[in-house]
Amino acid sequence: MAKRIDALDVLRGIAIMGTLGTNIWIFTDPAGPAGFLGFDNTGAVETFLRFLSNGKFLGLLTLLFGIGMELQYRSAVRKGLAWPGRYLWRAALLLVEGTLHFILIFEFDVLMGYAVTSMIVAYVIGRSHRAIRAWMTAAGALHITLVGLLTLALLATDDEAFAGAAGTLYTQGSWLDQVLSRLHNAAVYRVELIFIIPMGIVLFLLGTLLLRGGLFEERGAALRRRLTVAGLGVGAPLNLLTSYAGPAWFAVDRYLLAPLVALGLLGLITSILLKRDRAPGLMLRGVTNVGRTALSSYVFQNLAAGALCYGWGLGLAAQLDPLRPWWVPAAWAVICLLFITLSTLWLRRYDRGPLELAWQWAYQAPWRTTAKTPARR
User: From 243's CA, which of 71, 78, 128, 167 has a CA 20 to 30 Å away?
Assistant: First the structure.
């Protein structure tokens, strides 16, 4: 049991660092999210570097969220608690957290999507395998349809329409200007939820089935091999192809093939971790600590990237743009090293990350109040 939980922490840490590997290209673009949404043309090197992370670690994080839900469901059943019961309050808090993160820090927050998805999956996870597969099939069909329609629309769009309009909001604008921009353009920035929620239902439930199928156990060796072959042997080459196929294939690249690669990463990394028979080294312990403070690290990395790159901070996106893409991986590494160090130092004194502690306090607050209220006759 302990080894399985350790593996989950390492996987979460890798997923958190990997999501920054995708987001860092947004922060370091002088046009900010406009460069991302405008599908600006990139060189061959930058395209390959983006390929290494784009969508894959989002998929991995989503699978791990589903595995976490299954563990919480098992805990509720073991304790005789009603399900989903209090879990819906957890999801509501996550929605609040995601909304604040979106407004105050980052346009492409995933926590809001996870919150809504978890509210749906909470009513499915305790049902039969047949019902779970039916939900996965329906959500998967909807997801593929949406990706297909978007791809057809992008293929029919003139290439010049993909050129992003560079503005000064992220090079000269204040933090408040960016907050107001997110509120004004919320419909545009939150449109990704249309894809995240159906995809999330599939991956949440798939994570549940993988855990039940012995993913972290000795009997799951064959399952892990199949995931690795399918994800890295089949998904990765196709994903590389769509990365260079042009902006019209963006949705297929990010929302169909990248989650398949994420399954391969899940199978391969888990196999490596379960075969380890020696104490973890310094780096592995650091990644584990990031996994233990996943929520805090996710929010912190985006806040740190904004402070480094945007005009209200150090403004490095504009200053170092001539060195793009070479300086971007360096920025990613510096931020990762920063939150690895901070999470390690924090956990020497506390057993949870700072946001995790605040979140746990808020989660327990209604029941503390109920317990302190004298019973009425």
Answer: 167
